[in-house]
Structure of Adenine DNA glycosylase:
Amino acid sequence: APAPPPARHLFSDPAEVETLRGNLLAWYDRCKRDLPWRALAATEPDADRRGYAVWVSEIMLQQTQVATVINYYNRWMQKWPTLQALAQASLEEVNELWAGLGYYSRGKRLQEAARKVVSELAGQMPRTAEDLQKLLPGVGRYTAGAIASISYRQATGVVDGNVIRVLCRLRCIGADSSSPAVIDRLWDMANVLVDRSRPGDFNQALMELGATLCVPKAPLCGECPVKQHCQARRRKLFGNPPPVPDIEDCGVGDCPLCPPATEPWDSSLGVTNFPRKAAKKPPRVMRTATCVLERRGCHGAPEYLIVQRPSSGLLAGLWEFPSLPLAQDLQEEKEREELADHLQAWMGQPVAAKSLQFIGEVIHIFSHIHQTYVVYSLHLDGDVTLDPALSPSRWVTEDEFHASAVSTAMKKV
């Protein structure tokens, strides 16, 4: 069995925990950012509306910065102020509003879960973190804890990227912070720390600390409200622990939360030695041929063909210009031929490869894919009858294109 972590990695002193809670909450009350979902959660008397408002914000904030989310959130809550309103919306409407926010499956799962609450749970949100995670599609452990603590005052902790960074620095946790064993320990700590009378505020304070002061690079340690509890700061100020550890220090080489011996403390990094993560896998490199098909519309304005992506996978259900994944290192002539064959299947008539005009390349970085779009255009003189057996497709003006559920990558194209 692995050795248990020594006491200095844990929050085992009740007096220290109480002081940390008080200092963090006092700082949060003074310094918290004015965010629309916080205002709704603080003023909305109806528990289900409060839960819905927090839920939408937490889903949007996954993998997306606060500054980007604010406008999307305000437009979403204006269009669908209640869970019941969202349940009646179409997926197309959801995708259109979500366009540009990224990770599009989030919006789809949010709507699916809203419909489930209305149809199977009598319109009432689950009230505990356990039930939220069990009953709502797309709601994981963190999101469930956030909704339950902020909306329903359940005394449960939360662990997100900001909390991981704060806790790892507070307690010098240098083991791989993405490993399940370390994540479980961090959840244990979060549940010990959470303030029982103000759980939602405490959890938001811990996340706010990571987002504004205890940032990945150049943290503002001098302004930190809990700096006296920070083991990483103490180590930065006073150096390594003494050669002979006291009863609260780690044993040699067998602590499950210490940095591995192969990654010693780097004094130049200070507190940013923590957290440690496993090296990221390099993004997958992909090339895709994309053709902007253009025709003259009935009112004289140009129209462009867009087709709908499959209902699952990357950018599920969004609209795009006809596109075809390419093998790496394909010659341009061969790219044109493959794209021409692909377009011929759409239009039911031959397409000459030489008629495709090369426009340029567009690079778009997804979280795990480095995507290059090789962009061609083709002007059509006559009308084209599209095969109804293929994916849904439609002709749109430029304004209609930008109002459709299209990805940021396609807008670049």
About this structure: The domain at 7-273 is CATH 1.10.340.30 (Endonuclease III; domain 1).
